[in-house]
């Protein structure tokens, strides 16, 4: 309880609206339940967590099957699907948790980065919800949420190195605090998940009996298990650029050229399954894995040279949708074993987008009292939002050459 004198002073100084805010902060201190809402891309997710990271209730509606049918994410379609499902998803998460809106300390919602039309639905719903129920609001950065998910599952102290790989992003950063990141490298063209999705689409993998409902990345991983990667030895991108940035567009051109050549050889047209899809999938997955591993290897060496990670038990976290790929995890393990780091990856259901990771980021912010807003405050979504302080030019200037590493990865 705040002493009466302090209360009166607040009332005098700030008037009624801010008194509401103090009473809300007090409520947050005692109960600490957060509702997380995610709509940045093509998943409508909601979850209620307590501050220990226990998931009290969750609901997730994936639009994947619709977008597979339309041949990629059409923003207006994604927006409409979010609009149709947000209320049900939030209601389900709350009902499963047995928590009423008045018991919540805050609502945490992804407001950046992502598809403008998708972000807008989650934000508009959340602002209406917090105003109706008079609860605190915590705007969330989607990539920060991916980076911190692991801390919900096990204690991982700062600082740690993080590789975030998804359908919209590829980046390497040092996480120094919940809102303190050093960006070592970022993508220059398309994200690895996007590349995998486009290759899968070019190969018409939805027509494959085992892949009809899988995302592109999942389909490539499944087929690659019985493929021979040596039949398609694609060049690893950016071999002579000694930084930690990523590029996948050139790799996709190489893959498309090989597909065209094979289609001509087999006398088939685009839209028909090639006999060698497993081998192409294996070659694609291997090259993506090696590119990610090499850039991460350089990031580790840079961190070591500059004392950015603890010498005792340094950790690499990998997260984002592509991090659910077991072959890519093994490639990264080759690097962490060579450099003495420990690789931590959330299980696949927490790597791909979900409401849980957003609620957890809200809990982390609530605990540290960072970025917590009163319900009446206006918030704008931001489709583009960098993560942390960009020191990628400094990394490039260091020009670190990698020692040879044998990338022997068993699928
Ligand atoms: O993090 P996420 O759910 O959404 C974004 O923020 O982008 O990531 C989705 C991406 C998709 O491109 C999907 O193909 C890829 O993650 N993905 C995978 C796997 N599962 C999902 N990529 C490779 N292997 C997988 N097993
Ligand atoms: Zn994501």
Largest sheet: 6 strands, mixed
The DSSP helix count reads 14
Fraction of helical residues: 40-55%
Tell me, rounded to a whole number, the average pLDDT.
Answer: 93
SS class: alpha/beta
Cofactor: a divalent metal cation
Main location: mitochondrion
Catalytic activity: L-threonylcarbamoyladenylate + adenosine(37) in tRNA = N(6)-L-threonylcarbamoyladenosine(37) in tRNA + AMP + H(+)
Keywords: Acyltransferase, Metal-binding, Mitochondrion, Transferase, Transit peptide, tRNA processing
Which helices and strands, and how do they pair?
Layout (H helix, E strand, L loop, with lengths): L3 H28 L1 E6 L4 E8 L4 E8 L1 H7 L4 H23 L8 E7 L3 H18 L2 E6 H7 L1 H4 L6 E6 L4 E8 L2 E7 L5 H11 L13 H9 L24 H18 L10 H29 L9 E5 L6 H14 L2 E3 L3 H4 L3 H14 L20 E2 L1 H7 L13
Parallel strand pairs: 1-4, 4-5, 6-9, 8-11, 9-10
Antiparallel strand pairs: 1-2, 2-3, 6-7, 7-8
GO molecular function: metal ion binding; tRNA N(6)-L-threonylcarbamoyladenine synthase activity
Catalytic activity: L-threonylcarbamoyladenylate + adenosine(37) in tRNA = N(6)-L-threonylcarbamoyladenosine(37) in tRNA + AMP + H(+)
Protein name: N(6)-L-threonylcarbamoyladenine synthase
């Amino acid at each position: 309880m705040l002493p009466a004198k302090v209360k009166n002073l607040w009332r005098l100084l700030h008037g009624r609206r801010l008194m509401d805010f103090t009473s809300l902060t007090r409520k947050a201190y005692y109960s600490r339940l957060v509702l997380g809402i995610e709509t940045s891309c093509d998943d409508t997710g909601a979850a209620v967590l307590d501050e220990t990271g226990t998931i009290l209730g969750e609901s997730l509606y994936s639009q994947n099957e619709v977008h597979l049918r339309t041949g990629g994410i059409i923003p207006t379609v994604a927006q409409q699907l979010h609009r149709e499902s947000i209320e049900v998803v939030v209601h389900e998460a709350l009902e499963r948790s047995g928590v009423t809106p008045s018991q919540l300390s805050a609502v945490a919602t992804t407001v950046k980065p992502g598809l403008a039309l998708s972000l807008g639905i989650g934000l508009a719903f959340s602002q209406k919800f917090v105003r109706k129920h008079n609860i605190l609001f915590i705007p969330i950065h989607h990539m920060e949420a991916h980076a911190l998910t692991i801390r919900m599952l096990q204690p991982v102290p700062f600082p740690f190195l993080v590789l975030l790989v998804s359908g919209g992003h590829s980046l390497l950063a040092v996480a120094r605090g919940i809102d303190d990141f050093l960006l070592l490298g970022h993508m220059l063209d398309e994200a690895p998940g996007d590349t995998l999705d486009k290759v899968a689409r070019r190969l018409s993998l939805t027509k494959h009996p085992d892949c009809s409902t899988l995302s592109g990345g999942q389909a490539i991983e499944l087929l690659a298990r019985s493929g021979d990667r040596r039949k398609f030895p694609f060049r690893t991108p950016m071999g002579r650029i000694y930084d930690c940035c990523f590029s996948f567009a050139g790799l996709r051109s190489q893959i498309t050229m090989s597909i065209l050549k094979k289609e001509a050889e087999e006398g088939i047209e685009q839209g028909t399954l090639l006999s060698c899809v497993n081998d192409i999938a294996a070659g694609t997955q291997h090259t993506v894995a090696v590119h990610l591993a090499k850039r991460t290897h350089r990031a580790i060496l840079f961190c070591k040279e500059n004392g950015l990670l603890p010498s005792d038990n340094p950790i690499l976290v990998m997260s984002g949708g592509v991090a659910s790929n077991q072959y890519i995890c093994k490639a990264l393990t080759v690097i962490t074993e060579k450099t003495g780091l420990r690789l931590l990856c959330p299980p696949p259901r927490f790597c791909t987008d979900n409401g849980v990771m957003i609620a957890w980021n809200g809990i982390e912010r609530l605990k540290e009292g960072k970025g917590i807003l009163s319900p009446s405050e206006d918030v704008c979504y931001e489709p583009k939002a960098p993560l942390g302080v960009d020191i990628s030019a400094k990394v490039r200037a260091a020009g670190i050459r990698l020692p040879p590493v044998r990338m022997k990865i068993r699928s």
